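To illustrate this point, we now present one chain and its tokenised fold:
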Amino acid sequence: MQKVKIQKYISKEFKGNKFSISEIKGDASNRKYYRAISKKRKLIIMDSSLEKRNYNNFLKFTKIFENKKIRIPEIFSKNLDKKILVMEDLGNNLIYDKVNKNNFFEIYEKAIINIIDIQKIKDKSINRYTREKYFKESFLFLEWVLKSFFKLKISNKDSRKLKKSLDFLVNNINYEHNKLVHRDYHSKNLFYKSKKVIMIDYQDALYGSPLYDFVSIINDCYRDIDKTSKNLLLNLFLSTYNDVHIKKFSNDEFFHNYHLLTTQRHLKASGIFCRLSVKYNRHNYLKHLSRTLNYIVNASYGYGNLDIVNYYAQEVINILNESNYSSSR
């Protein structure tokens, strides 16, 4: 929807307010976001007119999370026909911007407890992460990173090895412990306001590995966490998870799945970043590509069945370092 139509819509919905409208730099989707400011109030407008399924999912999970007291932005108005939501403006409180050395553990401990709370939700209407979905996401690395973005000539032999490696990866993820996962739980989708963690962009939630959201925030594509802090958070999550759930993780099983999910998550993320660049000329995510690829290298190291993945991830990191792709586009 055009900005002028958004202006007209919001003025009609909230009469007595003269709003100024500005578009907000969006996420890696087709949704558009606007900030509406008047003397009386500040609002966020989400335009999902190009994403009907995601809009319906957003409403579905809004209801689920609200019922379970998981903090999400308050919705003030919705238009089912236009696929528009008007919601609470959380201000400049993204964890990405707000966290510092003084508040790091306060914020991240609450973000981890929030993951555990999300995992308690049970709803038969929610779909599951299948092996096929894990594989399709992981395959984005081969399709968009190696072939489309870096234009590497992958031999048929190596293509078969990569596919076999991805099969190993998705077949060895633990499916017995499945819990509800947000699926994009990182510092740019989490706010910290009034001592509470508030999450956005939750419409793609599924039942999947209980480590998925933890991996997403501790190995965040958008910011670094030092090794000491990361180890403390690893221990916090494992101990809290085992305290809450009947089916517990042993240390070995936990770290095995931690490495597999880190690899899978970032094969997907790097593929999405490169697809956005190649297909949609959206290059702003490339500055996070090297960090994302390094997560793959570190997590897959030592797994013989993932050697080929490790090799190609390191190969494209070397190309990035030599040619400075991220700043040349």
The mean pLDDT is 93. The domain at 95-328 is CATH 3.90.1200.10 (Aminoglycoside 3'-phosphotransferase; Chain: A, domain 2). The chain is about 50% helix and 10% strand.
